[in-house]
Amino acid sequence: MSYKISEKYNCVVIEFKGKIMGGPLAESFRDDLHKLIEAGKKEVIVDLGKVTFMNSSGLGLIIGGLTTMKNAGGDLKICQADKRIESLLMVTQLISVFDHYRTLDEAIKAYEE
User: Fold this and answer.
1) Which domains does the chain have, with CATH numbers?
2) Confidence band (pLDDT; 50, 70, 90) for 10?
3) From residue 104, how far is each of 16, 25, 38 by CA, in Å?
């Protein structure tokens, strides 16, 4: 798993790549979220378009990110989840917890409303 953070139209975009399975980068992800909060950047979009696999630990990582942002008065939306990840969200009934969008542009527009 790897990720990169960028900004687009006043939103922070975190683009994950590969397999999201928790591990050592999970702590780094949490630290980066707290740095964003300290900088006043609380509108986050997690782009899952390049994710090939996600297990329960990876799902926990994204849920933790949502909780962190909500507790700070922000939000975390996800976009571009493929059918397998969407199925995982449905089976775990987390599809109703996350704001999920097909494209990055749709997720960005949702923050503008």
Assistant:
1) 2-112 (3.30.750.24)
2) confident
3) 13, 23, 24
